[in-house]
Specification:
Layout lengths: L4 E2 L8 E5 L2 E6 L3 E5 L3 E7 L8 E6 L2 E8 L17 E8 L10 E5 L2 E7 L13
Parallel strand pairs: 3-8
Antiparallel strand pairs: 1-8, 2-3, 4-5, 5-10, 6-7, 7-8, 9-10
C-alpha cells in the first residue's frame, strides 16, 4: 500500500505565487520515495535552492516542501540577456499518521533534498480484560 499521496493541491503545472516584492512561478519538483525498513526516504531535486530559501513543514499529515530560487545579480553587473527567472518549487505529500514527526531529518546536498521520515511503531491490538 502506498502511504504517500500527492496532495490535490500540488499540481504539475506552473502556477504563480507572490513572494515579497516579486511574483514567482512555482512548480512541483520531481521526487522519489523509498520504503526503508525503519523509515521512508523522500528525495527531490531542487537545483539552485539554498538552504536558507527552503521551508519544510508537516501539519495534519501534509508534508510540504517549498524552495525558492532567487535570482541574484552581482553588484555592478549589467544584465545583457535574461532567460533564467526566479521561481519556487512546491511539493505536497499526504503522509498520514504513519510518520514519527519529532524524528524527521532533512539534508540538502548538491541541489538534492533528502528527507528521512521515521515510521511510527505499528500499534498492536490490546486485549482488554473483563472484570
Amino acid at each position: 500500500m502506498n502511504v504517500f499521496k500527492p496532495s490535490a493541491l500540488a499540481l504539475n503545472s506552473r502556477k504563480q505565487c507572490s513572494s515579497g516584492d516579486e511574483t514567482l512561478a512555482y512548480t512541483r519538483p520531481r521526487y522519489d520515495i523509498a520504503d526503508q525498513s525503519e523509515s521512508f526516504l523522500v528525495t527531490t531535486d531542487l537545483p539552485g535552492v539554498a538552504k536558507q530559501d527552503l521551508s519544510i513543514t508537516l501539519h495534519d499529515g501534509l508534508l510540504e516542501v517549498i524552495g525558492k530560487r532567487i535570482r541574484q545579480v552581482p553588484k555592478g553587473w549589467k544584465i545583457l540577456s535574461e532567460e533564467k527567472e526566479a521561481f519556487a518549487y512546491r511539493l505536497r505529500l499526504m503522509v498520514g499518521d504513519r510518520v514519527e514527526e519529532k524524528r524527521i531529518s532533512a539534508d540538502l546536498k548538491n541541489g538534492v533534498l533528502s528527507l528521512t521520515l521515521p515510521k511510527e511503531e505499528e500499534k498492536k491490538p490490546r486485549k482488554i480484560m473483563i472484570n
